[in-house]
Amino acid sequence: MTDITVSDTARRPMRTALFLAVAMAATVGSALGFQYIGGYIPCKLCYEQRIPYYVGIPLMVLAVLASLIKLPAWTTRALLVIVGLLMVYGLYLGVYHSGVEWAWWPGPTDCTNVAGPVDTGGNGVLDALDKFVPPSCDKAALRILGLSLAGWNAIASLILAAVAFRGAQSRR
Q: Phi/psi of residue 143, each to 5°?
C-alpha cells in the first residue's frame, strides 16, 4: 500500500482557506443571528458590510476544493489574495460605518431616517411595505465593550485580511 504524505507547507494554504471559510461564515452568521434572533434591523451600511463575506465564503470553498484536487498552488494562493482584498474592503466599510456612527463624517444621504412602528392603517401589509423606512446608519443599534457591530466588523475584517494574506504567502 502506498502512503501519500503531504507536507505541512503544502497543506497550509488549504487549512487557511478552510479556516477563513468557517470564520467568515461565523462572522456573517452572527450578524444574521442579531438580525433574525435578536431583532436588530440592519441599516443600509450594515447590509453593504456583508457583501465581502457573501463573496468570500464561496471563494474560500473553491480554494479548499482547488487544493484538494491538486490544482496548481497559485490558484489557491490567488483566491486567498482575492479574499484578503475583499476583507480590506470590509475593513474600509466597517471603519466608514463606525465613523458615521461616531459622527466623524457624514453618512449616505439615503440612510438618515429612523424607522418607526409600522402601522398598516387597515390597508394591509403590502401597503405598509411602501412606507417602511430602514434604521438610520448614524445610530448604533448595539454596542459591545464600547464598539458597535460595525466596529467589530472592522476588527474581524482586519484579522481575516491578515490571515488571508499570510496564507497566500505559503508555498505548496
A: -120, 130
158 lies in some domain: yes
Work out the percent of the chain whose per-residue pLDDT is above 70.
Answer: 80
**Nearest residue to 21 (alpha-carbon basis) of 60, 52, 47, 64:** 60
CATH of the domain at 66: 1.20.1550
CB atoms within 10 A of CB 171: 10
φ, ψ of residue 144 in degrees (nearest 5): -120, 120
pLDDT confidence of 137, banded at 50, 70, 90?
A: confident
128: region left, alpha or beta (phi > 0 left; psi from -120 to 50 alpha): alpha
Higher-pLDDT residue of 101 and 134 is 101
Cell readout for 69 is: 484536487
Q: Provide the number of structural domains found in the chain.
A: 1
Question: How buried is 69 (Cβ within 10 angstroms: 0-12 exposed, 13-18 middle, 19+ buried)?
Answer: exposed
In the prediction, which pLDDT does 11 show?
A: 75
Higher model confidence: residue 156 or residue 172? 156
Residue 154 has, within 13 A of its CA and on its CB side, a CA count of 13
| Domain that includes residue 141, residue range | 8-169
